[in-house]
Design goal:
two-stranded antiparallel sheet, Trna Endonuclease, Chain: A, domain 1, 3 helices
């Protein structure tokens, strides 16, 4: 059930990115070998970890995205719970740098 919900969330994020002019598709994390793919493969300038759940451990979510992309650059967590809008969390320094542009 949770896996289906996660996949549904990834599809929703892909659709939102496409609506805003980005190319996007779900990643295939279960393929063997090599580095993990992100939840969403896109020309969006961030590596996206998608979490669609009622209770989120944001630190664990960042651990996951940072393991998949260890340089830590442009890693974000896009998340929501039922009945709520999608939200984004990112490193504070990255946020400040974005605000300065």
């Amino acid at each position: 059930m949770a896996r289906c919900k996660g996949q549904r969330g990834e599809r929703q994020v892909v659709d939102i990115l496409k609506e805003h002019g980005y190319t996007a598709a779900r990643g295939y994390q279960t393929r063997g070998g090599g580095k993990e793919q992100p939840d969403v493969v896109s020309n969006f300038p961030f590596r996206i970890e998608v979490k669609y759940c009622q209770t989120l451990n944001i630190y664990k979510a960042f651990e996951q995205v940072n393991l998949d992309n260890p340089d830590g650059n442009n890693n974000i967590v896009v998340f929501r719970r039922n009945g709520q809008p999608w939200r984004v969390a990112l490193d504070f320094i990255q946020f400040l740098e974005l605000c300065q542009k």
